[in-house]
Amino acid sequence: TPEALRAALARVQRLDQRHHMHPFTDPRALVQAPPFVMDAAQGCYVMGQGLRLLDAMAGLGCVNIGYGRPELAEVAAETMKQMSFYHSFAGVTNPPAAELAARIAALAPGALNRVFFANSGSEANETAIKLINLYWRRRGQPGRRLLISRDFAYHGSTVATSALNGLTAMHKPFGIRTVGHVAHVASPFWYRFGGDLTPEEFGKRAADAIEHKIMEVGPQNVAAVFAEPIQCTLGAIIPPESYWPRVEAICRKHEILLVADEVVTGFGRTGRWFAQETFGFQADLMTLAKGLSSGYQPISALVMSDDFSDVIGEQSEVLQHGFTTSAHPVATAVALKNLQILEEEKLVTRIADDIGPYFAARLTTLEQHPLVGEVRVSGLIAGIEIAEDKASRRQYPVDLGVDQLVGQAALARGLIVRPAGNVLVLCPPFVISRAEVDFIVDALAEALDQIH
Ligand code: PLP
C-alpha cells in the first residue's frame, strides 16, 4: 500500500540520517533534508522515490554496460556458490583472477602486461605510488621521490592519493601535507587558461610546464608524472592533441615514470579501449577501476610494463603490500563477464563509429546557448562550460553555483548530470540510445533556458 511504502521510505531516511556518514556530502545538509533514496536501476535509468531518472553520469562514470544486466548477476551468484572467497596472498590464485589478469594484459597497450588487483581507484593509485618508490630503490635511485601531478587532478581519497589531487579542499582540511611529496603543475585546460594561444600551442606550453618543474627540482629527484588522460572529475578537461605526445617525450628524456590514471577513461570511454590509444602515448603504469566491472563489483587494477615489473621482481623479497580482497574471485569473475559483454556487443567501436559522433554532434548544438562557452567531447565523455560572457570566456563566481542550478533544473526534467564548478560533466552508459541522447540535449537546453 502507499502508506506502507511511505513508512518504509521514512524508516530508511531516518536510519540513514542518524547513522550513515556519506562520502563527499555536507553532514549538516543531511540533518536538515533527508537523503534521496535510490533503490532500483535498469539500462540507463535509476529509480527512487517514485522518480525515474536518465543517468547521464553512469553512476560515477562506471556503469558502462548499463544497469541491471542479469548475466553479471548470474556470474556473481555462480562464483559465490563455487568459491565465495579465498585470498591471493603467498602464491595462491583463483581461475577468474588469472583469466582477468591475462585479459587486461591482452587489451592494454604496449608492454603493460602485469596486473596487481585492488578494490578501488584510490587503492590502485596508492599501490602505484608505493611500487614506484620501491622501483627507484631497486634501481639505486632512492632520491627519486617527487610525484608531479596537475591542477584539477583527481586521483583518489586515500592519504597519498588525495595529496595528488588538484584541489586543496581535498587535502587541506585533513592536514595532509603535499610538500616534498607532490608538485602540482598547470592543467592542459585550454578553454580557461589558453588565452590567445591556439589549442596546439597551448598544449605544448602545458606539457612544457612539466619539464620546467622537472628542471626546477632536478630530474634526479622526480619519480613519476601522474595524470588522467582526460581530467574527468573536475571538469572533463580534454587536452589539445599536442599535449600527450610531448608529455611522454619529456618523461622519456628525463627517465621519469609516466602513470596514466585511466580509472574513468579505461575500457572504452573515449572510443578506444584506452585513452592512451586515443591520444597517442604510452605509459609505464596504468590504473583502472570503474569500467573494469562497470561498477557491479568493487575492483581495480594497477597494470605495469614488463620493464617495471621486472625491476620489482628481480630481487627475492616478499612484496609487503596488498589487500585481503585483492583479486577477489567474485569481483574478477564479474569483471571478466563485463569485458566479454563489451567485446561481444562491440560497445567500444559503437562509441567510435556511431553513438560517440552522434553524442558530440547533438551536444555541441548547445554551444549556441548564451550560457554555454564551450562543449568538449571525447567519445562518451563531455564537459559543458558555463560562461557568464562567452566572448571573453568570463566565468560566474563559483560560489554562485550556476552549474548547480542548471544541474537541479536538469534533474527536475529527469536527467542526471554532474556540476563540477562552472562545468557540467556527462559520461553516460555505453548502451545509450540516440533517443536518449536527444532527451539529454533537450533537457539540458530547457534547463539552461530556465536558469538564463
Ligand atoms: N582516479 C580517477 C581519475 C577518478 O576519477 C577516481 C574516482 O572518481 C579515482 C581515481 C578514485 O577512484 P575510487 O573512487 O574508486 O577510489
From TrEMBL:
Lineage: Bacteria, Pseudomonadati, Pseudomonadota, Alphaproteobacteria, Kordiimonadales
Pfam families from the UniProt entry: Aminotran_3
Protein name in UniProt: Aminotransferase
NCBIfam families hit by this protein: PRK07480.1
Entry cofactors: pyridoxal 5'-phosphate
Single GO term (MF): transaminase activity
Protein family: Belongs to the class-III pyridoxal-phosphate-dependent aminotransferase family.
Keyword Amino-acid biosynthesis appears in the UniProt entry: no
Assigned keywords, A-Z: Aminotransferase, Pyridoxal phosphate, Transferase
Keyword presence, Transferase: yes
Native species: Gimibacter soli
Highest taxon of the lineage: Bacteria
Extent of the signal sequence: none
CDD domains from the UniProt entry: OAT_like
